[in-house]
Design goal:
80 residues; globular
Amino acid sequence: MINMEFDAAQDAFRAGELTEAVVSSDDERNGWVIMVRRRGAGLEPITDTRGEPRVYHQLDHASELARRIGFRQVRIEEPF
């Protein structure tokens, strides 16, 4: 897994490197994780300072932070 903290994600978005944001439920961590897609690559999570996926406990908060990265649209994934 590649470490991508919030500030690095904003920089990558501004540089045109990111194409998609997905907010995905994470039952193991009891919250939501923001995943971003790098141009020509797979999804990778926004991480904390330890390199672990950053968990948000409210969907609205995770969606708002994805918007603050720069995305105008965010896909929400919640398996049933």
